[in-house]
């Protein structure tokens, strides 16, 4: 398989080629492994590569498909996992020194579902330490395929680099305050934070239990929908787990079949409220995206997000407290093994009084009621996924400071607090040629409608066809 042929596929088009037997799962897996061998020394997307397991899974998929036993659209497709999803027999580091040699005995619930769907798992992806903003020095930062001097965003950092760089056809991510949507926006791919509980977190090392979401990252909205369909499902091992909505209520309708429903929607554009914090070129891309969406839907009006500052403050309190509760014993025993930024943040969380945490939960309940009112008036919200383009790697530690991080999560963290589905879809490029993400947010359980709106925009705007000039840059370096 040539480089051009590998780069020309999306997950969806590759799936169809595999099912029609135009492409072999073994052939495409070998091509991915060769590309990883050639490019990942530059991108630093993977922590652990599992080539023998991947090739064995690809051979099994090829036998099953040849025998007429297809498992579905992920069968034989190479993907990769953020390295906080437990994998039986394969180390799961969480990007930390603490778990550098941890080899779980069981797969996370999502990993089992992906195996059952026939996906070929290439390995485990680099990430912020324990998904808490900063990359540990033991692993080093992934590099953005659009500009190798830029960061990919966090905390699903390697997932963004691997998908955008064409090392795999999709990846898992987790999102506590923007950790799927932020790297998706910075890397020019699609990232969905599903409705809270739609995707099981059993076997996923937590950051903050009541804010964590697991979801897909991929090149296109169709690709993300295919991954979501495999990942979503009730899991009794996760007490927050919920069943996906049935077909006809936001469930597994083809995206194209949902287009008529999208055309009847009312969109609420969040513009003026965020104008002061959004860079001029990002704001211009988002406004142009809203202009493209306008004739595709029934109505667009500007809206104000209620309780925005209160929600961000509540999210910060809850995240700090829950993360420190999870790591309390390890912090007492092995504080020196945490990176300095994560260690400082965990220590700060231990100082939060119970009264402050409970007041934050009261704010959360009030915000849910306010957003129920807003989303009874409009069907979807559209706003920037990030305020600015991907930062330079040299400045990554500065953007992880507590105050800067808190401000950077303003467009994303409220939807973790509320548990609403939110997707980032590419909507253009900044003046320096870096990708921008449009965020589309919907009501609880209406993930498929959010994806349908994103798909309609994506196909109208066409940004998904742009690929980073990674091969040219790496071959000349």
Commentary on this structure:
The chain has one domain: Amidase signature (AS) domain (Amidase signature (AS) enzymes). The chain has an eight-stranded mixed β-sheet. A three-stranded mixed β-sheet has the order 1-3-2, sandwiched between helices. α10 links the parallel β7 and β8. It has 477 residues and is of the alpha/beta class. It is built from 18 helices and eleven strands.
Provide the CATH topology.
Amidase signature (AS) enzymes
Total beta strand runs = 11
C-alpha end-to-end distance: 24 Å
- Strand line-up of the largest beta sheet: 4-6-5-10-11-9-7-8
Name the CATH superfamily classification: Amidase signature (AS) domain
Number of helices: 18
The overall pLDDT average reads 94
What pattern of helices and strands is seen along the backbone? HHHEHEHEHEHEEHHEHEHHHEHHHEEHH
State the low-pLDDT regions, or none: 247-251
SSE class: alpha/beta
The CATH C-level name is: Alpha Beta
Helix content: 40-55%
Do you know the CATH architecture? Answer: Alpha-Beta Complex
> What is the total domain count?
1
Largest sheet at a glance? 8 strands, mixed
Sheet-strand content, in percent, reads 5-15%
**Cα radius of gyration in angstroms:** 21 Å
> What is the general shape?
globular
